[in-house]
Amino acid sequence: MNKSKLFFKTCFLAVAMCAAGIAANAQVFVIERGAQFQSFANIYAAVEALQNGDKIYIPPGTHGTTGNNITLDVPNVTIIGAGYDNGADASRIGVAVIFAADGITVTGINFINQINIQAISNLNMARCLVEFVSTTGIQNSILISECDFRGSFGSPPYGLNNATISKSIFRHQTFSVSASVINNCLFMRHTSASYPLDVRNSTLTNNIIVAAGFTGQYQYNISQGETGYHTTYQNNLWVGIEPVFHANAFITLSGNNIFEAVYEDTFNNPDLNDFSLKAGSAGIGAGTDNTDIGLFGTAAPFKTSKLPAIPHFSLRNITDETDETGNLRVNIRIEAQER
């Protein structure tokens, strides 16, 4: 978006807020529908008003801490927050969110409760923090990038289906996907696992998989005696003990998988969530594209600022009345992080 278009869009947003009589520094939810803008004072009213193709801007703050879950059942909507790890300016949703329509795009949101992904297609989720993910039915064409998942991901035995997942962090022991492609992610599995990694008919490339603190063995691609499941691991960095795959698993190890890397020699400062590779790590330049294995590989590495790539607004102040010359004082900040 060029600066002139962004300027006019900002003015329209400000006018929409003022026309609705929104007080200065209030939490304002704005829906963009073509050249029209509508503003709402709470997230429930805004979601209820969504129509096919709308954009909704989620302001900083924590929303929906009490009340019903939020169901997104309108197709092709775009949800834009102010960033998931942006201090007081982060956009947080406190109740469970159900994704129940095709073509949803969401970025810059901290889902501090949970999300449920139903049998939908073309979900695009980028730069979000999610407490945990449950799944219902079979999904298609799910795109996830630069997200931080704190709890369980997917619902065994099949979990999320047909996903492309890149440069994302998984901190829980439960991860369940099928027919998916997972690139340059980080799996932090520091506690004893109730479930192993359940990965079926998928390809994992350039990921870091941590086993520090395990007392047992890895078991990947658990097929429970079923046939027809095949997973390929290519150029992954395995930190800690070497994986032991289930006897029924159909596994291909290709490229240059690196085993038994030392945790303390891998990351610069993991206690402060700095998962860039330490000098001398075997993962440096070891990816299939000759960039680093893990989050900071590829031509567009993980962005530590965690802001959405889509321009979003942070409302700071709108005066209630015009001055003596008829001007309305508006102070709005526009931010975006490079892709």
Q: Would you summarize the structure shown here?
A:
The protein is mainly beta and 339 residues long. The chain is built from two helices and 33 strands.
What gap, in angstroms, lies between the N and C termini? 13 Å
Order of strands across the widest beta sheet? 2-1-3-6-9-12-15-18-21-24-26-28
Q: What's the mean pLDDT score?
A: 81
From the spread of the alpha carbons, the general shape counts as globular
Strand fraction band? Answer: 25-35%
Helix content: under 10%
**Structural class assignment:** mainly beta
Give the uncertain stretches in residue-range form. Answer: 1-25, 212-225
Q: Main beta sheet, described?
A: 12 strands, mixed
Number of helices: 2
Can you put this structure into words, describing what you see?
With 339 residues, the chain is mainly beta. The N terminus is likely disordered. A twelve-stranded mixed β-sheet has the order 2-1-3-6-9-12-15-18-21-24-26-28. A ten-stranded parallel β-sheet has the order 4-7-10-13-16-19-22-25-27-29, with no helix packed on it. Strands 5-8-11-14 form a four-stranded parallel β-sheet, with no helix packed on it. Strand 30 and strand 31 form a beta hairpin. The protein contains two helices and 33 strands.
Which tags fit this structure?
single chain, 339 residues, mainly beta, 12-stranded mixed beta sheet, 10-stranded parallel beta sheet, 2 helices, 35% strand
Write the layout of secondary structure elements.
Blueprint: H1 3-19, E1 29-33, E2 36-40, H2 43-48, E3 55-57, E4 61-63, E5 70-72, E6 78-80, E7 91-93, E8 97-99, E9 105-107, E10 110-111, E11 115-117, E12 121-126, E13 129-130, E14 133-135, E15 140-145, E16 148-149, E17 160-161, E18 163-166, E19 169-170, E20 175-178, E21 181-183, E22 186-188, E23 197-200, E24 203-205, E25 208-210, E26 231-234, E27 237-239, E28 251-254, E29 258-261, E30 267-269, E31 274-277, E32 312-318, E33 330-335
